[in-house]
Every structure is written in C-alpha cells, then in structure tokens.
Amino acid sequence: MLTGRKYRLDLAPGQAEFAERIGGVCRSVWNTALEQRRTYRRREAWIGYHEQARQLAEAKGEFAWLAEVPGHCLQQTLIDLDQACSRHGTWKVRWKSKARTRPSFRFPEGAKIAIERLNRRWARAKLPKLGWVRFRITRPLGGTVKNATVSRDGPHWYASFLVEDGVVTPERHDNPGSAVGIDRGVAKVVTRSDGRFHHQVFARDREVEHAKKLQRDVARTTKGSVRRKKAVARVAHLARKIRRRREDFAAKTAHALATGFELIVFEALATKNMTVGVAPKPDPGQQGAFLPNGAASKSSLNRSILDKGWYRIELATRSKARSTGACVITVNPAYTSQTCNVCTVVDRRSRESQAVFRCTSCGHTEHADVNAAKNILTAGRAEFVQPSPGVRAGARKPRRRVGRKANRQATAAQATAQTEPELAGIPRL
Fold this sequence. Notes:
The chain is an alpha+beta fold. The protein folds into two domains: 1-168 and 404-429, no CATH class; 179-199 and 243-279 and 292-383, no CATH class. It has eleven helices and 16 strands. A seven-stranded antiparallel sheet has the order 2-6-7-1-5-4-3. A five-stranded mixed sheet has the order 10-9-8-11-14. It is globular.
C-alpha cells in the first residue's frame, strides 16, 4: 500500500533560496490558473487542465522565471488545481497567499528521484534541478518512492516521500467481531463505548496567556518591519508546538483504535457548520443598536471545538485501519446524546449535565459521553453488516452514489474540453 515518510531536510543556503523560488512560482501558477478558470466561468465558458498546460508550455518560452523551475512541479500544480475545482467547485477553491501559505511543491515522478544512505543518521536524495539534498533518516523508507513533496514549516524544510511499501491489507483483523463507538467532545476529546477516555490538553493555560502576549507584541509593531517579522515568527513557533501535540495525539489514538477493534464507528460531524458564527440581532427599538446574541460564548465554544482536531482523529484512524484490516464508518449523530442506550427513549431532559445522563423513563444512569458512544455503536452495527470470519472488514460497505446532475456536469465538461473556446481578454499562463 501507499504510505508517507516525512524527513527534515538539511538544505544549503543556495538550495533553500531556490526552493523558496520554486514555491513562489508554483503559487503564482496556482493563482493565475484559478483566476483564468473563474474568468471563463463568468463568461459561461470552461477551461480545463490540458488547455492550461498547453498555455503554460508557451509561457515558459516567454518568461525565464517560469523556465528555471522544474516543469513537472508546475504541471502538478495545475493537476492539483483541477482536482480541487472538480471536488469543491471553482468558486470555493482558495487563493494561495504569500504571507499565509507555506511554500510547497511536488516532484511527481519517483523514477527520477535517487535515494542514497550516507550513514546511520543521514541520507541524501537527488531531486530534479535541486540536486543532492541531505535529510535526517529517522526511519527507513521501506519501499519504492513514487513522488516527493518539499515544503517549508517555519524555518525548516521537509521532504515527504510517497512510498509503495508492499504491505497488503490483511483479510482478517486480529480481533474479529470487536467493535467500538466513538463520541468526540470538548470536555473529553475521545470517549469510547467501552468506557475508556482519550484526552489531552494541547495548549496549557500559561501557553494560552503567552500566546495572547505574543499577539499583543505583533499588534504593537509596524507592518513590514523587522520587529514584526520576529514577533510573527514567535507566534508561529508556539502554534507549531501545539499543532504537533495534536498530531501526535491523533496518531496514538488512531493506533489504539485500529489495532484493538475491527469495526470503528464515528459520528458524521459537520465541524464547519458547527463552528459558524452567530448572526447579529438588530434592536428594533433603537436604530444602529444590537441585542445580546451570545456571540462571545459561541466563539469560545468554536475555538474549543477547532482545538480538539476531531477530523484529524478520524483521518488518522482511517489511515491506520488500512494496515490492520479494520473498518471505519460514520453514522448520523442526531439524538445520540439524548437517547438512552437501555430503553431507547429519547428525551433531552435525560442529559442533566455535560457528564451526567439519567434516563427519565427507566432511571438508567451513566456517563453522558459513554451513553452517546454506545448509541453510536448501535447505529453503526445497524448500518453495517458485521463481517463473518474470513471476510475482510468493509467488503460489504455500500457504494457512494453520484447524482444525475453531477453526471451531466461531467459529460458537459468533457465535451467542452474537446472544443476549447478562445476568448479575448482572458489572462493566459
């Protein structure tokens, strides 16, 4: 199966400068191609990857700064943009900012990447036009390199190799028939249906206060000054520490779940909708005034939800499940916290507090998150047929159906791509 290996690079000053330039050119190609697609859409036309790649080849003959960077990195940028527009729509794809977007580019051809081991700690990779670059080999590659992505995180550069390690998903899980329901929350990040909790505080109180001080330091500086760059770097350093704790917690939790259970059931949470801000309430008695709407408390809840990294935990579990044979599914989260898992009576009054659930019908008392996790597991077992021994988990999972509207749009896009219109006044690559 395909797996990722990430290593920290040790670039020479010239290589780091050239890598920064490659990332800037890829960002410029992304933004120009996205604006071109939107301009076509405004004029009720369509342009795809093949036409943009042809225009990119012509532009490389006119602009030297396009020709000096690896051409495969630019083509991969157009491919990534095409996939993003197909998945999310042209108007929902975001621009890449120089200040907020980390420079990143990919070498898609693994056959052109050579890897050599130097000693116990160091190895080197030969990347097109970058030459030989050293990296700390903290663990073996363990397979054939398919592609490599170079990115900068703070002051350091990293290389992520996509490797074919030859591992096959096992036909049978080590614990056949085992299942668990997962309830994700704010007070406890992960609650299992067997009564166990996985929780960690990613940002300590003193770090939160320190982050506020660093933000005030940024606000006191002048835009574009050296002091502001240093203040922003201190804020980013603290944010990276918290992010890495969150990633480590997600990886450890995913390992425990995927190795211990054959069926893992999550809630299908729409985090983006759950963290939407509160609309203002105008005061009808006074023009220009607004009534209290609880925006402050809702903002605090939104920050707490986003801090827990709910989607990262689910994504890490799905990735780990490939090597253990576990099956990960999601169910509708409606009424899972208000339903008694003993008598199945739904009553919101049964949820007395964040941690106490006492059924108003049968009197069953349990931790509220554990009760919700058991309801999630029950719903998952109802939607998923538990595989019998010898049958790989997930083999009977229903396929995703595509609507007729999506099929018509795909057919129209393919027909338009064959006869690409030439419109005057549209930016070209």
